[in-house]
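Example S7 (structure tokens).
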């Protein structure tokens, strides 16, 4: 049994701190672990085992009358994460906040940092805990010194907020944003690498790259494109900022697998952490050369914590990341990935087989090129109207996508999504194909 000292380190107020230690209920991680422990088989076998996933579904507090297929936007947290956040928030208000927040709770964030780093295979001194992927990525996008005329390379399918940040640098600093187009879907990783290579010029000073494209779920060859940046052009290596908003905790990988220097992600999508939590990885030797978004002391120049200088903020969100990580580890990261891919295939392959021949999938189903996210289009139906009809009439939430290259509805189930819910979704889309949408 861990001691209070193990949990809290050298906290000045051990008696008060003991109040915030986890109190597990029958429906908590302990109970869930016991229910899942007896299930054996490959990840693919477990992905199809509904008995395995039933207690995981019950671990969430979602309204079963609603079918949420927009977990890629932001996910609900399981009850155990909500309980942890509530516990920390109550403690923050039960005694003087300067003591509760700064003396007791904030030091506990170091344990969360260490666990996140261990899970994704890096040094804790390379991991900052942020509020979302946008904050993590804008630290990088705005943290490099660029001169007028310097070029930044990105893709038309990159997340709009990230493109907005780069366009602001265009207006403010006179940099030049260059956008490339990728095939939809992109079935050949080497073709993707070739496209990036051909768009790098001697003026390229920065590259923004999506690990998983938010509007299609396409997984891009990050390691190879990072290598292109390292090879450089003109005046030396080009930093590559990797947008991992949809990748981290979605499918199994370690950050060293990507060999990248900068990686930003949200934790309230696929890790099921509290809303308003994110992660920034910066390779240790690159920390000093990157300016923080909000000012930090010069003595912090090489400290990853300089990226966390945001002023007074709640500790509850960040500390409850620990329960979210344990929840995913309890499921099993490989099993979680296999389940998300299985759910994707269950609806996507059914709709693709519709005899009308009008269904188009804008996401590759080839191994390694996607996971739980896919975007589907029904020719002859307006995608925005279809998404609106699904939600307003049937309480099925999807995301309408209207891009210059394609349109469709993005479908993102999660581990609490049931096959019955996906059957309901498919049935309504098939109804729309066969009968049309109401005028």
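Recovered sequence:
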């Amino acid at each position: 049994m861990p001691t209070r000292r193990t949990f809290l380190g050298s906290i000045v107020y051990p008696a008060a701190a003991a109040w915030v230690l986890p109190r597990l209920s029958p429906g908590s991680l302990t109970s869930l672990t016991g229910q899942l422990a007896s299930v054996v088989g490959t990840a693919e076998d477990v992905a199809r085992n509904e008995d395995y996933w039933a207690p995981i579904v019950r671990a969430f507090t979602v309204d079963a009358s609603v079918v949420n297929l927009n977990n890629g936007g932001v996910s609900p947290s399981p009850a155990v994460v909500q309980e942890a956040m509530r516990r920390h928030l109550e403690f923050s208000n039960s005694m003087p906040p300067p003591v509760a927040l700064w003396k007791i709770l904030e030091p506990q964030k170091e344990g969360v940092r260490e666990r996140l780093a261990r899970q994704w295979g890096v040094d804790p001194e390379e991991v900052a805990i942020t509020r979302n992927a946008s904050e993590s990525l804008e630290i990088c996008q705005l943290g490099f010194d660029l001169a007028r005329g310097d070029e930044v390379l990105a893709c038309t399918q990159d997340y709009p907020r990230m493109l907005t940040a780069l366009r602001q640098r265009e207006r403010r600093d006179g940099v030049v944003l260059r956008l490339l187009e990728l095939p939809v879907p992109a079935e050949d990783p080497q073709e993707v690498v070739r496209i990036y290579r051909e768009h790098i010029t001697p003026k390229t000073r920065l590259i923004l790259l999506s690990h998983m494209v938010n509007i299609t779920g396409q997984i891009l060859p990050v390691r190879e494109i990072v290598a292109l940046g390292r090879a450089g052009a003109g005046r030396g290596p080009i930093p590559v900022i990797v947008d991992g908003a949809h990748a981290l905790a979605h499918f199994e990988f370690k950050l060293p697998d990507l060999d990248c220097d900068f990686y930003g992600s949200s934790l309230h999508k696929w890790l099921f952490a509290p809303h308003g939590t994110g992660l920034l990885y910066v390779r240790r030797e690159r920390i000093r050369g990157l300016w923080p978004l909000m000012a930090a002391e010069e003595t912090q120049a090489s400290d990853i914590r300089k990226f966390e200088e945001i002023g007074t903020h709640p500790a509850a969100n960040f500390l409850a990341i620990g329960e979210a990580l344990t929840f995913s580890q309890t499921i099993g990261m490989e099993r979680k990935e296999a389940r998300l891919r299985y759910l994707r295939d269950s609806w996507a392959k059914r709709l693709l087989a519709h005899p009308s021949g009008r269904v188009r999938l804008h996401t590759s189903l080839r191994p390694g090129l996607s996971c739980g996210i896919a975007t589907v289009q029904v020719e002859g139906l307006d995608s925005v109207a279809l998404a609106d009809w699904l939600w307003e009439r049937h309480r099925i939430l999807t995301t309408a996508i209207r891009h210059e290259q394609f349109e469709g509805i993005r479908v993102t189930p999660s581990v609490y999504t049931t096959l019955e819910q996906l059957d309901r979704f498919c049935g309504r889309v098939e109804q729309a194909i066969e009968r049309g949408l109401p005028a």
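Notes on this example. The chain has two domains: 28-76+332-431, 124-323.
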